[in-house]
Amino acid sequence: MMRIWDENAGKAQLKLSGSEHNHLAFVLRAKVGDGVIALRGDEFDYFYIIESISKKESVLTLIDKRKNECNPARELSVYLAVITNDNLALACQKLNEIGATRLVLFSSAYSQKQKINLSRLAEIARQSCKQCGRSLPLRISFLGDIKNLNPEIKNKKIAFLDNYAKKSAKPNFSKFDGIIVGPEGGFTEAEREFIASFTTPISFGDRILRAETAAIVGTGACLLG
Ligand code: SAH
Fold this sequence. Notes:
Order of helices and strands: EEHEEEEHEHEHEEHEH
Bound molecules: S-adenosyl-L-homocysteine
Radius of gyration: 20 Å
Oligomer: single chain
CATH class of the largest domain: Alpha Beta
């Protein structure tokens, strides 16, 4: 089923123009009579039928509304130090697919110092929803400095993905509410001690993963394991 994103989803009629219309008409080659699911970031799939489609505009009529069945069954927050924009974009898309519910960015001694474009990341999560089917996108925020992790995380079970941690028996990943991942340059010794004081340090093994890889496989371990 084709999916579009429209904040007006749920209205009796939708008129699409611009990029959603172009995608539907020229990439997906939708035809009059085709069914389309419209998403708007709530818990529902809105089912529409295409009434008309022209070069500039398509008109859709609502036929049904059903609870979305692709949304994550549980909460998982990924606390990721700021990495380069391209790698943030990749992590954002993959975490949305795998089923994380929050991506919380923070700065640390060796994190990237560039401006973070939260609205671009939110757009990537919405686009990913159209592909993977969930209707509630990954929620993305910036926490500020690493020291804010502690109050934010209080009373939560968090895995600290730490390439310096001792290899241990396979932990039970399903118990974690979140994971912490460092930047490309890693954490300082003091930062590692600070984070380890309120989390469970875990190493994935012998190789050093890139930050976005660690975030992706860590999310997979918690949600798909
Ligand atoms: N140059 C850095 C490597 C950082 S890798 C250093 O020497 O420390 C980026 C982040 O990915 C790390 O801070 C850690 O959170 C995570 N990571 C990388 N490899 C990992 C592994 N084998 N196990 C667990 N976490 C890992």
